[in-house]
Amino acid sequence: FATYAQYLYFEAIDPNYDIDAEINQLRQFDNTLLALPVPGDPGAEQLFAPSVYFRGALTVHSLRRTIGDEAFFTTLRTYLERFGGGNATTEDFQGIAEEISGVDLDDFFQAWLYEAPLPPPPS
């Protein structure tokens, strides 16, 4: 989220900013930086690995493109309302995204967070 928040900030302040183009540049990184460790379970020693930050941003943006802006931003607000200042899990976030969007996201989160190959961008 921290990495993706930077992209959201630039999108908010610059009407000419193309967030999709910027995110696509992340996809051009060396796949070994994006594949391992898988960001959903990097282990304590790899918690700050590039895949956690960069692939995490790709995941969040792909979720946005999968469920649409309205559901995505409602998901973020709801997540903050329910868990802000506390602890939450990936499953908690997924549950809110599914609740808001009405979309089953099991396969999405499995592919993006727990499997090494980088999934294709949403169409």
Overview of this protein structure:
It is a single chain. This protein has 123 residues and is mainly α. Helix content is 65%, strand content 0%. The chain is built from 7 helices and no strands. It has helices at residues 2-13, 19-27, 31-35, 50-67, 69-83, 90-101, 106-114. It is globular, with a radius of gyration of 14 Å.
Write the layout of secondary structure elements.
Elements: H1 2-13, H2 19-27, H3 31-35, H4 50-67, H5 69-83, H6 90-101, H7 106-114
Helix pairs in contact: 1-4, 2-4, 4-5, 4-7, 5-6
Number of beta-strand segments: 0
Give the structural class: mainly alpha
Number of helices: 7
| Through-space gap between termini | 22 Å
Average predicted confidence as pLDDT? 91
Q: Which residues sit in consecutive blocks of at least 5 with pLDDT less than 50? A: none
Report helical residue fraction: 55-70%
Instruction: Output the helix-strand order.
Output: HHHHHHH
Oligomer: single chain
| Structural shape | globular
- Biggest sheet overview: none
Radius of gyration over all CA atoms, rounded: 14 Å
How much of the sequence lies in strands comes to under 5%
Question: In summary, what is this structure?
Answer:
This protein is mainly α and 123 residues long. The chain contains seven helices and no strands.
